[in-house]
Amino acid sequence: MTSHVWQIAGLLEDIDGRLHVDGNDAVTLAEKHGTPLFVFSEKRIRHNIDRLRKVQDVIGCPLKLCYAAKAMSTMGILRAVRDAGCDLEVNSGGELWKALQAGFTGEQINFNGNSKEVWELELAITKDIYAIQVDSLYELSLIEETAKRIGKRANVSLRLVPEIASDTHSGLQTALVTSKFGMMPDEAFAAFREHRDSPHLDICGIHLHVGSQNPDPIVYTQALEMLFAGLKRIFSETGTKLKHLNIGGGFPVDYLRGQSELDLRDENKQMLAANFEPATALDSAWHAIRESIGSENASQLFEDLTILLEPGRSIIADTAICLTTVRNAKQRPKPESEIQNPKSKIEKDHWLLTDAGFNILLSMETYKWYYHLISAERADEPHDFPYKLAGPLCDGGDVYFDHEGQNRLPEYRLLPRDINPGDVLALLNCGAYSLAQASQYNGRFLPPVMLIRENGEAELIRKRDDFKDLINNDL
Ligand SMILES: Cc1ncc(COP(=O)(O)O)c(C=O)c1O
Protein backbone atom coordinates (compact mmCIF):
# COMPACT_ATOMS: atom_id res chain seq x y z
CA MET A 1 0.00 0.00 0.00
CA THR A 2 1.56 3.31 -1.10
CA SER A 3 0.67 6.50 0.73
CA HIS A 4 -0.68 9.60 -1.01
CA VAL A 5 -1.77 13.08 0.05
CA TRP A 6 -5.38 12.26 -0.81
CA GLN A 7 -5.39 9.06 1.23
CA ILE A 8 -7.66 8.68 4.27
CA ALA A 9 -6.58 5.64 6.25
CA GLY A 10 -9.18 2.87 6.12
CA LEU A 11 -11.40 4.87 3.74
CA LEU A 12 -9.56 5.94 0.59
CA GLU A 13 -6.48 3.88 -0.13
CA ASP A 14 -4.26 2.75 -2.92
CA ILE A 15 -4.01 -1.03 -2.66
CA ASP A 16 -1.76 -2.63 -5.30
CA GLY A 17 -2.08 0.48 -7.44
CA ARG A 18 -5.90 0.54 -7.42
CA LEU A 19 -8.10 2.94 -5.55
CA HIS A 20 -10.12 1.30 -2.76
CA VAL A 21 -13.05 2.75 -0.80
CA ASP A 22 -13.54 1.08 2.57
CA GLY A 23 -11.72 -1.94 1.16
CA ASN A 24 -13.76 -2.11 -2.07
CA ASP A 25 -11.91 -1.90 -5.38
CA ALA A 26 -13.27 1.23 -7.11
CA VAL A 27 -12.62 -0.05 -10.64
CA THR A 28 -14.51 -3.27 -9.96
CA LEU A 29 -17.48 -1.21 -8.72
CA ALA A 30 -17.28 0.93 -11.87
CA GLU A 31 -17.17 -2.19 -14.08
CA LYS A 32 -20.17 -3.68 -12.33
CA HIS A 33 -22.40 -0.60 -12.12
CA GLY A 34 -21.10 1.64 -14.90
CA THR A 35 -20.05 5.27 -14.58
CA PRO A 36 -20.56 7.96 -13.57
CA LEU A 37 -21.00 6.32 -10.18
CA PHE A 38 -21.07 7.86 -6.72
CA VAL A 39 -19.59 5.70 -3.94
CA PHE A 40 -20.32 6.74 -0.34
CA SER A 41 -18.94 5.37 2.92
CA GLU A 42 -21.28 4.80 5.87
CA LYS A 43 -18.28 4.47 8.19
CA ARG A 44 -17.11 7.94 7.21
CA ILE A 45 -20.60 9.41 7.67
CA ARG A 46 -20.58 8.10 11.24
CA HIS A 47 -17.04 9.34 11.79
CA ASN A 48 -18.02 12.85 10.68
CA ILE A 49 -21.15 12.88 12.83
CA ASP A 50 -19.11 11.76 15.86
CA ARG A 51 -16.58 14.52 15.18
CA LEU A 52 -19.33 17.15 15.18
CA ARG A 53 -20.90 15.66 18.29
CA LYS A 54 -17.75 16.61 20.18
CA VAL A 55 -19.20 20.12 20.25
CA GLN A 56 -21.44 18.73 23.01
CA ASP A 57 -18.37 18.23 25.22
CA VAL A 58 -17.41 21.89 25.09
CA ILE A 59 -20.80 23.58 25.47
CA GLY A 60 -22.25 21.74 28.42
CA CYS A 61 -25.80 22.23 27.05
CA PRO A 62 -27.69 19.59 25.08
CA LEU A 63 -26.65 19.62 21.41
CA LYS A 64 -29.14 18.89 18.63
CA LEU A 65 -27.17 17.94 15.54
CA CYS A 66 -29.24 18.27 12.37
CA TYR A 67 -27.73 17.08 9.09
CA ALA A 68 -28.54 19.59 6.30
CA ALA A 69 -30.42 17.34 3.87
CA LYS A 70 -29.86 19.76 0.98
CA ALA A 71 -26.25 18.55 0.77
CA MET A 72 -27.36 15.04 -0.27
CA SER A 73 -30.71 13.41 0.38
CA THR A 74 -30.87 10.07 -1.40
CA MET A 75 -33.03 7.90 0.87
CA GLY A 76 -30.21 5.47 1.72
CA ILE A 77 -28.06 8.39 2.88
CA LEU A 78 -30.88 9.89 4.96
CA ARG A 79 -31.39 6.52 6.63
CA ALA A 80 -27.67 6.14 7.29
CA VAL A 81 -27.65 9.59 8.93
CA ARG A 82 -30.73 8.68 11.00
CA ASP A 83 -29.17 5.37 12.05
CA ALA A 84 -26.09 7.29 13.19
CA GLY A 85 -28.39 9.12 15.64
CA CYS A 86 -28.38 12.47 13.85
CA ASP A 87 -31.42 14.73 13.34
CA LEU A 88 -32.23 16.63 10.17
CA GLU A 89 -32.57 20.08 8.65
CA VAL A 90 -34.78 20.33 5.55
CA ASN A 91 -35.36 23.15 3.16
CA SER A 92 -38.63 22.36 1.43
CA GLY A 93 -41.82 20.36 1.77
CA GLY A 94 -40.24 17.80 -0.57
CA GLU A 95 -37.24 17.30 1.71
CA LEU A 96 -39.58 17.21 4.70
CA TRP A 97 -41.64 14.48 3.05
CA LYS A 98 -38.48 12.50 2.22
CA ALA A 99 -37.31 12.87 5.83
CA LEU A 100 -40.59 11.42 7.12
CA GLN A 101 -40.35 8.57 4.59
CA ALA A 102 -36.81 7.87 5.81
CA GLY A 103 -38.15 7.44 9.34
CA PHE A 104 -37.30 10.77 10.99
CA THR A 105 -39.93 11.91 13.49
CA GLY A 106 -41.29 15.48 13.50
CA GLU A 107 -39.32 16.20 16.67
CA GLN A 108 -36.10 15.42 14.76
CA ILE A 109 -36.77 17.89 11.94
CA ASN A 110 -35.99 21.56 11.48
CA PHE A 111 -37.39 23.39 8.46
CA ASN A 112 -35.57 26.27 6.74
CA GLY A 113 -36.36 28.08 3.49
CA ASN A 114 -37.15 31.55 2.30
CA SER A 115 -40.25 30.97 0.11
CA LYS A 116 -42.36 28.45 1.94
CA GLU A 117 -45.76 27.54 0.55
CA VAL A 118 -48.90 26.97 2.60
CA TRP A 119 -48.96 23.20 1.92
CA GLU A 120 -45.38 22.95 3.20
CA LEU A 121 -46.29 24.82 6.37
CA GLU A 122 -49.36 22.63 6.86
CA LEU A 123 -47.23 19.49 6.60
CA ALA A 124 -44.65 20.88 9.02
CA ILE A 125 -47.25 21.98 11.58
CA THR A 126 -49.29 18.78 11.31
CA LYS A 127 -46.18 16.71 11.95
CA ASP A 128 -45.25 18.85 14.99
CA ILE A 129 -41.74 19.42 13.73
CA TYR A 130 -39.09 20.76 16.11
CA ALA A 131 -39.01 24.23 14.52
CA ILE A 132 -39.90 26.13 11.41
CA GLN A 133 -37.20 28.77 10.87
CA VAL A 134 -39.05 31.91 9.96
CA ASP A 135 -37.64 34.06 7.17
CA SER A 136 -39.82 37.21 7.43
CA LEU A 137 -42.63 38.87 9.35
CA TYR A 138 -44.95 38.02 6.47
CA GLU A 139 -44.04 34.34 6.83
CA LEU A 140 -44.59 34.49 10.59
CA SER A 141 -48.17 35.70 10.08
CA LEU A 142 -48.71 33.04 7.40
CA ILE A 143 -47.57 30.34 9.85
CA GLU A 144 -49.84 31.73 12.58
CA GLU A 145 -52.80 31.80 10.20
CA THR A 146 -52.08 28.26 8.97
CA ALA A 147 -51.69 26.88 12.49
CA LYS A 148 -54.95 28.55 13.55
CA ARG A 149 -56.80 27.07 10.56
CA ILE A 150 -55.68 23.54 11.36
CA GLY A 151 -56.12 24.02 15.09
CA LYS A 152 -52.50 23.54 16.14
CA ARG A 153 -49.57 25.47 17.62
CA ALA A 154 -46.47 25.85 15.44
CA ASN A 155 -42.96 25.72 16.89
CA VAL A 156 -40.98 28.49 15.28
CA SER A 157 -37.56 30.03 15.46
CA LEU A 158 -36.68 33.36 13.86
CA ARG A 159 -33.84 33.53 11.35
CA LEU A 160 -31.70 36.62 11.92
CA VAL A 161 -29.55 38.54 9.46
CA PRO A 162 -26.30 38.54 11.43
CA GLU A 163 -24.31 40.73 9.03
CA ILE A 164 -21.29 38.46 9.36
CA ALA A 165 -19.04 38.34 6.32
CA SER A 166 -16.96 35.26 5.64
CA ASP A 167 -14.05 34.58 3.27
CA THR A 168 -15.96 31.86 1.50
CA HIS A 169 -17.10 31.88 -2.13
CA SER A 170 -19.44 34.83 -2.78
CA GLY A 171 -22.25 32.46 -3.80
CA LEU A 172 -22.00 30.71 -0.43
CA GLN A 173 -22.35 33.88 1.69
CA THR A 174 -25.74 33.89 3.39
CA ALA A 175 -25.34 36.20 6.37
CA LEU A 176 -25.05 39.69 4.91
CA VAL A 177 -27.68 42.38 4.81
CA THR A 178 -27.52 41.97 1.03
CA SER A 179 -28.12 38.19 1.28
CA LYS A 180 -31.66 37.02 0.71
CA PHE A 181 -32.15 35.17 4.00
CA GLY A 182 -33.72 36.07 7.31
CA MET A 183 -35.00 39.17 9.07
CA MET A 184 -33.25 42.13 10.65
CA PRO A 185 -32.74 41.59 14.40
CA ASP A 186 -34.91 44.55 15.40
CA GLU A 187 -37.82 43.18 13.37
CA ALA A 188 -37.36 39.76 14.93
CA PHE A 189 -37.21 41.10 18.48
CA ALA A 190 -40.36 43.16 17.89
CA ALA A 191 -42.05 39.98 16.66
CA PHE A 192 -41.23 38.28 19.97
CA ARG A 193 -42.99 41.09 21.83
CA GLU A 194 -46.02 41.09 19.55
CA HIS A 195 -46.59 37.34 19.25
CA ARG A 196 -45.54 36.28 22.75
CA ASP A 197 -49.07 35.37 23.75
CA SER A 198 -50.23 33.85 20.46
CA PRO A 199 -52.07 30.55 21.05
CA HIS A 200 -50.87 29.36 17.63
CA LEU A 201 -47.17 30.15 17.82
CA ASP A 202 -44.46 28.94 20.14
CA ILE A 203 -41.54 31.21 19.28
CA CYS A 204 -38.88 29.14 20.92
CA GLY A 205 -35.58 29.99 19.29
CA ILE A 206 -33.40 32.13 17.09
CA HIS A 207 -31.31 31.01 14.17
CA LEU A 208 -28.56 32.16 11.87
CA HIS A 209 -26.30 30.57 9.27
CA VAL A 210 -22.96 32.11 8.41
CA GLY A 211 -22.61 30.56 4.93
CA SER A 212 -20.91 27.42 3.70
CA GLN A 213 -17.22 26.38 3.64
CA ASN A 214 -16.13 29.13 6.06
CA PRO A 215 -12.33 29.17 6.15
CA ASP A 216 -12.02 31.21 9.37
CA PRO A 217 -13.41 29.96 12.72
CA ILE A 218 -13.85 33.57 13.88
CA VAL A 219 -17.27 33.66 12.20
CA TYR A 220 -18.52 31.19 14.82
CA THR A 221 -17.40 33.47 17.64
CA GLN A 222 -19.29 36.31 16.00
CA ALA A 223 -22.32 34.07 15.48
CA LEU A 224 -22.38 32.99 19.14
CA GLU A 225 -21.98 36.58 20.33
CA MET A 226 -24.94 37.60 18.25
CA LEU A 227 -27.13 34.70 19.36
CA PHE A 228 -26.35 35.31 23.05
CA ALA A 229 -27.01 39.01 22.75
CA GLY A 230 -30.39 38.03 21.25
CA LEU A 231 -31.09 35.52 24.01
CA LYS A 232 -30.49 38.18 26.68
CA ARG A 233 -32.39 40.92 24.91
CA ILE A 234 -35.47 38.75 24.30
CA PHE A 235 -35.49 37.78 27.96
CA SER A 236 -35.12 41.32 29.24
CA GLU A 237 -37.70 42.76 26.85
CA THR A 238 -40.32 40.01 26.96
CA GLY A 239 -39.46 37.67 29.82
CA THR A 240 -39.27 34.81 27.26
CA LYS A 241 -36.60 32.17 27.91
CA LEU A 242 -35.59 30.71 24.55
CA LYS A 243 -35.46 26.93 24.21
CA HIS A 244 -32.82 26.91 21.53
CA LEU A 245 -30.12 28.80 19.68
CA ASN A 246 -29.34 27.54 16.17
CA ILE A 247 -25.83 28.27 14.87
CA GLY A 248 -26.47 26.84 11.37
CA GLY A 249 -23.82 24.90 9.42
CA GLY A 250 -20.88 25.94 7.26
CA PHE A 251 -17.91 24.04 8.71
CA PRO A 252 -15.29 23.58 6.00
CA VAL A 253 -13.89 20.49 4.30
CA ASP A 254 -10.33 20.33 3.01
CA TYR A 255 -10.84 19.82 -0.73
CA LEU A 256 -7.15 20.30 -1.57
CA ARG A 257 -5.67 17.85 0.95
CA GLY A 258 -2.14 19.13 0.67
CA GLN A 259 -2.11 19.98 -3.05
CA SER A 260 -0.28 23.19 -2.19
CA GLU A 261 1.39 23.52 -5.60
CA LEU A 262 -1.92 23.99 -7.43
CA ASP A 263 -2.00 27.00 -9.67
CA LEU A 264 -5.02 28.73 -8.11
CA ARG A 265 -5.77 32.17 -6.74
CA ASP A 266 -4.56 32.42 -3.14
CA GLU A 267 -7.92 33.22 -1.59
CA ASN A 268 -9.44 30.29 -3.46
CA LYS A 269 -6.75 27.99 -2.17
CA GLN A 270 -7.25 29.13 1.42
CA MET A 271 -10.99 28.62 1.15
CA LEU A 272 -10.73 25.17 -0.45
CA ALA A 273 -8.01 23.98 1.94
CA ALA A 274 -9.78 25.23 5.08
CA ASN A 275 -9.79 22.77 7.93
CA PHE A 276 -10.56 23.27 11.61
CA GLU A 277 -12.26 21.29 14.33
CA PRO A 278 -15.81 22.53 14.94
CA ALA A 279 -15.52 21.75 18.67
CA THR A 280 -12.31 23.78 18.96
CA ALA A 281 -13.84 26.68 17.05
CA LEU A 282 -16.81 26.82 19.42
CA ASP A 283 -14.91 26.05 22.63
CA SER A 284 -13.18 29.34 23.35
CA ALA A 285 -16.02 31.44 21.95
CA TRP A 286 -18.52 29.62 24.16
CA HIS A 287 -16.55 30.07 27.36
CA ALA A 288 -15.79 33.73 26.70
CA ILE A 289 -19.47 34.39 26.15
CA ARG A 290 -20.62 32.50 29.22
CA GLU A 291 -18.17 34.45 31.33
CA SER A 292 -19.19 37.77 29.87
CA ILE A 293 -22.84 37.01 30.50
CA GLY A 294 -21.92 36.51 34.13
CA SER A 295 -24.88 37.71 36.18
CA GLU A 296 -27.11 35.18 37.93
CA ASN A 297 -30.12 36.43 36.12
CA ALA A 298 -28.50 35.65 32.79
CA SER A 299 -27.08 32.25 33.79
CA GLN A 300 -30.58 30.90 34.25
CA LEU A 301 -30.94 31.43 30.49
CA PHE A 302 -28.68 28.43 29.98
CA GLU A 303 -31.00 26.13 31.91
CA ASP A 304 -32.98 23.98 29.47
CA LEU A 305 -31.24 25.66 26.53
CA THR A 306 -30.44 23.46 23.51
CA ILE A 307 -27.83 24.37 20.91
CA LEU A 308 -28.51 23.38 17.32
CA LEU A 309 -26.03 22.82 14.52
CA GLU A 310 -27.05 22.20 10.89
CA PRO A 311 -23.93 20.96 9.10
CA GLY A 312 -24.23 19.44 5.62
CA ARG A 313 -20.90 19.60 3.84
CA SER A 314 -18.81 18.60 6.87
CA ILE A 315 -20.92 15.46 7.34
CA ILE A 316 -21.12 14.25 3.76
CA ALA A 317 -18.54 15.82 1.39
CA ASP A 318 -15.53 13.62 2.08
CA THR A 319 -17.61 10.45 2.41
CA ALA A 320 -17.92 10.04 -1.37
CA ILE A 321 -16.04 9.81 -4.62
CA CYS A 322 -17.41 10.05 -8.12
CA LEU A 323 -16.06 7.49 -10.56
CA THR A 324 -15.97 8.56 -14.18
CA THR A 325 -14.73 6.95 -17.38
CA VAL A 326 -12.72 8.66 -20.11
CA ARG A 327 -14.95 8.41 -23.19
CA ASN A 328 -12.90 10.33 -25.73
CA ALA A 329 -9.40 11.74 -26.16
CA LYS A 330 -7.77 14.13 -28.62
CA GLN A 331 -4.82 16.42 -29.08
CA ARG A 332 -4.86 20.11 -29.97
CA PRO A 333 -2.19 22.73 -30.57
CA LYS A 334 -1.49 24.66 -27.37
CA PRO A 335 -2.80 28.21 -27.12
CA GLU A 336 -0.13 30.94 -27.66
CA SER A 337 -0.16 31.93 -23.95
CA GLU A 338 0.73 28.38 -22.90
CA ILE A 339 3.53 28.03 -25.47
CA GLN A 340 5.22 31.07 -23.82
CA ASN A 341 4.83 29.51 -20.35
CA PRO A 342 8.32 28.29 -19.26
CA LYS A 343 6.73 25.55 -17.12
CA SER A 344 4.92 24.12 -20.09
CA LYS A 345 6.96 21.29 -21.56
CA ILE A 346 4.34 19.49 -23.59
CA GLU A 347 3.84 20.66 -27.16
CA LYS A 348 0.22 19.77 -27.57
CA ASP A 349 -2.81 19.86 -25.32
CA HIS A 350 -3.99 16.35 -24.48
CA TRP A 351 -7.74 16.44 -23.98
CA LEU A 352 -9.71 13.83 -22.04
CA LEU A 353 -13.50 13.85 -22.25
CA THR A 354 -15.20 12.10 -19.35
CA ASP A 355 -18.78 11.08 -18.57
CA ALA A 356 -18.98 13.34 -15.45
CA GLY A 357 -19.98 16.91 -16.28
CA PHE A 358 -21.73 19.74 -14.52
CA ASN A 359 -24.98 17.82 -14.88
CA ILE A 360 -23.80 15.89 -11.78
CA LEU A 361 -21.22 18.32 -10.33
CA LEU A 362 -22.89 21.66 -10.84
CA SER A 363 -20.58 23.63 -8.55
CA MET A 364 -17.67 22.82 -10.85
CA GLU A 365 -19.31 25.28 -13.26
CA THR A 366 -21.27 27.72 -11.03
CA TYR A 367 -18.64 28.13 -8.29
CA LYS A 368 -15.58 26.75 -10.13
CA TRP A 369 -15.34 24.21 -7.33
CA TYR A 370 -12.21 22.04 -7.21
CA TYR A 371 -12.59 18.26 -6.94
CA HIS A 372 -9.24 16.50 -6.86
CA LEU A 373 -8.89 13.95 -9.67
CA ILE A 374 -6.84 10.75 -9.66
CA SER A 375 -6.59 7.62 -11.75
CA ALA A 376 -8.57 4.83 -10.04
CA GLU A 377 -6.68 2.03 -11.79
CA ARG A 378 -3.19 3.53 -11.73
CA ALA A 379 -3.41 5.27 -8.38
CA ASP A 380 0.20 4.45 -7.50
CA GLU A 381 1.79 5.95 -10.63
CA PRO A 382 3.20 9.46 -10.72
CA HIS A 383 0.44 11.93 -11.54
CA ASP A 384 2.63 14.34 -13.47
CA PHE A 385 1.28 14.57 -16.99
CA PRO A 386 -0.99 17.58 -17.74
CA TYR A 387 -4.35 17.04 -19.41
CA LYS A 388 -7.19 19.33 -20.36
CA LEU A 389 -10.28 17.74 -18.84
CA ALA A 390 -13.89 18.22 -19.85
CA GLY A 391 -17.28 16.60 -19.30
CA PRO A 392 -19.75 15.27 -21.86
CA LEU A 393 -22.23 18.15 -22.11
CA CYS A 394 -22.91 20.19 -25.19
CA ASP A 395 -21.87 23.34 -23.33
CA GLY A 396 -18.49 25.14 -23.51
CA GLY A 397 -18.59 25.66 -19.74
CA ASP A 398 -18.59 21.92 -19.07
CA VAL A 399 -14.85 21.76 -18.38
CA TYR A 400 -12.64 21.04 -15.37
CA PHE A 401 -10.76 24.36 -15.76
CA ASP A 402 -11.88 27.95 -15.49
CA HIS A 403 -13.10 28.76 -18.97
CA GLU A 404 -13.57 32.40 -17.95
CA GLY A 405 -9.79 32.70 -17.43
CA GLN A 406 -10.10 33.82 -13.79
CA ASN A 407 -7.67 31.23 -12.42
CA ARG A 408 -10.22 29.78 -10.03
CA LEU A 409 -9.42 26.26 -11.25
CA PRO A 410 -6.14 24.84 -12.57
CA GLU A 411 -5.77 24.88 -16.37
CA TYR A 412 -4.54 21.29 -16.44
CA ARG A 413 -5.16 18.20 -14.32
CA LEU A 414 -2.23 15.91 -13.56
CA LEU A 415 -2.66 12.20 -14.20
CA PRO A 416 -0.36 9.35 -15.22
CA ARG A 417 0.93 9.37 -18.81
CA ASP A 418 -1.07 7.66 -21.55
CA ILE A 419 -4.54 7.86 -20.07
CA ASN A 420 -6.90 6.53 -22.72
CA PRO A 421 -10.63 6.13 -23.41
CA GLY A 422 -11.99 3.42 -21.12
CA ASP A 423 -9.76 4.41 -18.18
CA VAL A 424 -11.56 5.00 -14.88
CA LEU A 425 -10.80 8.17 -12.94
CA ALA A 426 -12.00 9.26 -9.50
CA LEU A 427 -13.08 12.73 -8.39
CA LEU A 428 -12.67 13.02 -4.61
CA ASN A 429 -14.76 14.74 -1.90
CA CYS A 430 -17.87 14.62 -4.07
CA GLY A 431 -20.54 13.86 -1.47
CA ALA A 432 -21.99 17.34 -0.88
CA TYR A 433 -24.07 19.45 -3.25
CA SER A 434 -23.40 17.09 -6.16
CA LEU A 435 -26.14 14.55 -6.84
CA ALA A 436 -28.46 16.82 -4.83
CA GLN A 437 -28.10 19.44 -7.59
CA ALA A 438 -27.93 17.05 -10.55
CA SER A 439 -30.08 17.35 -13.66
CA GLN A 440 -30.87 15.32 -16.76
CA TYR A 441 -29.49 18.10 -18.99
CA ASN A 442 -28.69 16.78 -22.47
CA GLY A 443 -30.86 13.73 -21.77
CA ARG A 444 -28.26 12.29 -19.43
CA PHE A 445 -29.30 9.71 -16.86
CA LEU A 446 -28.96 10.58 -13.19
CA PRO A 447 -26.22 8.28 -11.89
CA PRO A 448 -26.39 5.35 -9.48
CA VAL A 449 -25.16 5.57 -5.90
CA MET A 450 -23.39 2.89 -3.87
CA LEU A 451 -23.11 2.97 -0.11
CA ILE A 452 -20.34 0.94 1.46
CA ARG A 453 -21.91 -0.31 4.65
CA GLU A 454 -20.16 -0.41 8.03
CA ASN A 455 -19.42 -4.10 7.47
CA GLY A 456 -17.65 -3.30 4.19
CA GLU A 457 -20.43 -4.54 1.91
CA ALA A 458 -21.19 -2.41 -1.13
CA GLU A 459 -24.91 -1.75 -1.54
CA LEU A 460 -26.62 -0.05 -4.46
CA ILE A 461 -28.85 2.64 -2.86
CA ARG A 462 -29.90 4.39 -6.05
CA LYS A 463 -30.14 2.84 -9.48
CA ARG A 464 -29.21 4.66 -12.65
CA ASP A 465 -32.08 6.42 -14.45
CA ASP A 466 -33.25 4.65 -17.56
CA PHE A 467 -34.98 5.87 -20.72
CA LYS A 468 -38.40 6.10 -19.11
CA ASP A 469 -37.07 8.39 -16.37
CA LEU A 470 -36.21 10.88 -19.09
CA ILE A 471 -39.87 11.25 -20.07
CA ASN A 472 -41.68 10.08 -16.94
CA ASN A 473 -43.60 13.29 -16.31
CA ASP A 474 -43.97 14.52 -19.86
CA LEU A 475 -47.64 14.49 -20.95
C1 LIG B 1 -29.77 27.47 6.71
C2 LIG B 1 -28.68 26.53 6.36
N1 LIG B 1 -28.27 25.65 7.28
C3 LIG B 1 -27.31 24.74 7.01
C4 LIG B 1 -26.69 24.71 5.78
C5 LIG B 1 -25.60 23.70 5.55
O1 LIG B 1 -24.39 24.31 5.29
P1 LIG B 1 -23.08 23.42 5.13
O2 LIG B 1 -23.38 22.37 4.13
O3 LIG B 1 -22.04 24.35 4.67
O4 LIG B 1 -22.77 22.87 6.47
C6 LIG B 1 -27.07 25.61 4.80
C7 LIG B 1 -26.41 25.60 3.48
O5 LIG B 1 -26.05 26.57 2.92
C8 LIG B 1 -28.10 26.55 5.09
O6 LIG B 1 -28.51 27.42 4.17
In round numbers, the mean pLDDT is 93
Instruction: Tell me the distance between the termini.
Output: 54 Å
**Rg calculated over all Cα atoms:** 24 Å
Q: Which structural class best describes the helix and strand composition?
A: alpha/beta
Strand content: 15-25%
Which CATH first-tier class of the largest domain would you pick? Answer: Alpha Beta
Secondary structure tally: strands: 20
Q: What's the main sheet like?
A: 9 strands, mixed
CATH A-level architecture of the largest domain: Alpha-Beta Barrel
Shape: globular
CATH topology of the largest domain: TIM Barrel
Cofactors, ions, other ligands = pyridoxal-5'-phosphate
Low-confidence stretches are none
Protein described:
It is a single chain. By secondary structure, the chain is of the alpha/beta class. It has 2 domains: 12-41 and 318-471, Beta Barrel (Lyase, Ornithine Decarboxylase, Chain A, domain 1); 112-311, Alpha-Beta Barrel (TIM Barrel). Helix content is 30%, strand content 21%. It is built from 16 helices and 20 strands. It has helices spanning 26-33, 42-53, 55-59, 75-83, 93-101, 118-126, 137-149, 185-195, 218-238, 266-272, 278-293, 296-299, 313-316, 336-340, 363-366, 467-471; strands spanning 12-15, 18-21, 24-25, 37-41, 63-68, 87-90, 109-111, 131-134, 154-159, 201-207, 244-246, 306-309, 320-333, 348-354, 373-375, 385-390, 413-415, 424-427, 449-452, 458-462. The strands form 3 sheets. Strands 4, 13, 14, 15, 16, 17, 18, 19 and 20 form a 9-stranded mixed beta sheet that branches. It has an 8-stranded parallel β-barrel with strand order 5-6-7-8-9-10-11-12, surrounded by 6 helices. Strand 5 (63-68), helix 4 (75-83) and strand 6 form a beta-alpha-beta unit. It starts with 11 loop residues before the first strand and ends with a helix. The model has no long low-confidence stretch (mean pLDDT 93). Pyridoxal-5'-phosphate binds at residues 68, 71, 89, 112, 174, 209, 212, 248-251, 310-314.
